[in-house]
Design brief:
This protein is an all-beta fold. 2% of the residues lie in helices and 34% in strands. The strands form 11 sheets. The chain has a 5-stranded antiparallel beta sheet with strand order 1-2-31-30-29, with no helix packed on it. Strands 3-4-5-6 form a 4-stranded antiparallel beta sheet, with no helix packed on it. The protein has a 4-stranded antiparallel beta sheet with strand order 7-8-9-10, with no helix packed on it.
């Protein structure tokens, strides 16, 4: 196998990665493929080739136009090391919306590692981990036509007290502001938590690593999640009482509380290094993964876990990876979980599984997709690198996303068959037979508030109800409805009646 040096040494220097681990020649010329496993069908929708992007790390999102949006850390038309924003239709037609470092000195940023957020104005908001006015990353706004505005450049002051290297994406809170974290910077250079308005006004809320013994944690590389109570929750990769990272709560005003320290159990059975964002389940608990840690029968395994933790820090391990022989159940989960409309959680592991055909697989498999119930029943859904030269992709490192058509979409960091000599990851879909649904944006609001309802085949809708209460609405497009929360509405399911049937929301809409 050859290394990814075909595009020159500049790529290898700027990327700063072990490209030998990820290197392989891809000889398949087919752009899409379908593989059936039991009731699951995985389809490779697109293989990245460099100019159109390379190595996606961030989770995808569904836009109001029905397309799917994401970022790649590298690739693009400027230089291969800078990254892109792309959109892709559910059937696989990909368009590069923006290539970073399009402005002199890369003041528009580069190497976006976090996911995107679509705001009520229809624009996309996100972060870059590098570049900007001071080289320490940025927050940006991007229109659907590709016009980028840098809202904030980090390290704007000596010593970077405002933060440095925002690896994670943003989350939109109930007050209309975005919240995020930086891996470095702040008073201790251990990272920060911040609030930023859509106009770009940034307020630092917390300096990590400032408490004695780093009990608040440090290096917060995972995105925050908005809880149903309006507070924000997150994890740090390191620190805490045992050095394995922390689970914390942050109020919109900046009040910080450490709720749990990982590696508190013998042999780190409760996991070590939570690097991925949490998700709050419909039962009110948070669910997530750790990259490392885990123990089986009292013996340290160290390949990660799936866990549940209550809003006040009561912890439960649901699954320890490498529980199966030869780690066929997966190893080293590098992505967050996603709760689908069947109530189960879906995720991926960057290694493990039954296939180990390429050097980047690390000797223990090229990654898996899995399903896990709230009670911890675990099922492997797919093993990557099932095709020659990993044409179906390998090492998935981003969370799955369920489209309102019921199908899952995701990316792999490696593999694919772009028809070029080298490939740099894929976009794929996974059908498990789940039905279509609708999704509200936001997921809570007051009576009288205007919300968006995303779905599939919404044209001709005849009714919208909030927990049985009829609401006024306007069909904007085949994929979007706007509606007003009706008087008398209570917390519950939103339903939309269409010519093809009734669609229910994937989660309850909460009345404030």
């Amino acid at each position: 196998m050859k290394s990814k040096n075909v595009l020159g040494s500049l790529w290898m220097i700027a990327a700063g990665q072990d490209w030998a681990r990820r290197a392989f020649a891809a000889f398949l010329l087919c752009a899409t493929s379908a593989i059936a496993l039991s009731a699951q069908t995985l389809t490779t929708l697109h293989s990245f080739g460099g100019v159109d992007g390379a190595d996606p790390l961030a989770p995808l999102i569904q836009g109001t136009d029905g397309n799917i949006y994401g970022t790649t850390v590298y690739g693009g038309i400027n230089q291969i090391s800078y990254g892109t924003v792309f959109d892709i239709t559910p059937d696989g037609a990909l368009t590069t919306v923006y290539s970073f470092c399009s402005q002199g000195g890369c003041t528009d940023g580069y190497q976006p590692q976090g996911g995107l957020v679509q705001y009520t104005d229809g624009n996309l908001y996100g972060t870059t981990s590098s570049g900007g006015m001071h080289g320490a990353g940025s927050v940006f706004k991007l229109t659907s036509t590709g016009t980028l505005t840098t809202l904030y450049s980090f390290c704007s002051q000596t010593g970077c007290p405002d933060g440095d290297t925002p690896v994670a994406g943003l989350v939109l809170a109930n007050n209309g502001a975005f919240y995020g974290t930086t891996k470095f910077g702040g008073s201790a250079n251990d990272g920060t938590a911040f609030k930023i308005t859509p106009a770009g006004v940034l307020t630092k809320l917390h300096d990590f690593g400032m408490l004695v013994g780093h009990t608040d944690g440090y290096f917060p590389i995972a995105a925050l999640v908005l809880g149903t109570n309006g507070n924000l929750y997150g994890v740090t990769e390191d620190g805490g009482q045992k050095g394995g990272g922390t689970f914390y709560r942050l109020t919109p005003g900046g009040a910080f509380t450490t709720l749990y320290s990982f590696c508190s159990q013998a042999q780190c059975a409760d996991g070590d290094a939570p690097t991925n964002a949490l998700i709050q389940g419909t039962d009110g608990n948070f669910y997530g993964t750790t990259r490392d840690g885990g123990a089986i029968n009292g013996s340290f395994v160290g390949t990660g876990i799936v866990f549940k933790i209550s809003p006040n820090g009561i912890f439960t391990t649901l699954h320890t990876f490498c529980s199966a022989s030869s780690c066929t159940d997966g190893a080293y989960p590098a992505a967050a979980l996603f709760q689908a409309n069947d109530g189960n959680f879906y995720g991926s592991t960057s290694h493990g599984g039954t296939n180990n055909t390429e050097s980047f697989c690390g000797g223990i498999g090229c990654g898996t997709l899995f399903k896990i119930t709230r009670a911890g029943k675990f099922t492997t859904l797919y093993n990557f690198c099932g095709e020659n030269n990993c044409g179906d992709g390998g090492t998935p490192e981003a969370a799955l996303m369920q489209d309102t058509n019921g199908i899952f979409y995701g990316t792999t960091y490696d593999g694919g068959s772009s028809g070029q000599q080298f490939s740099y990851g894929t976009v794929f879909s996974l059908s498990t037979g789940l039905g279509a649904f609708v999704e509200t944006q936001p997921t809570s609001g007051k009576v009288g508030a205007t919300i968006k309802i995303l779905g599939t085949n919404l044209t001709g809708a005849t009714s919208v109800t909030f927990n049985g209460q009829a609401a006024t609405f306007t069909v904007v497009s085949n994929s979007e409805i706007t509606s007003t929360v009706p008087s008398g509405a209570t917390t519950g399911t939103v339903k939309v009646v269409t010519p093809s049937g009734t669609l229910s929301s994937n989660m309850k809409f909460r009345i404030k």
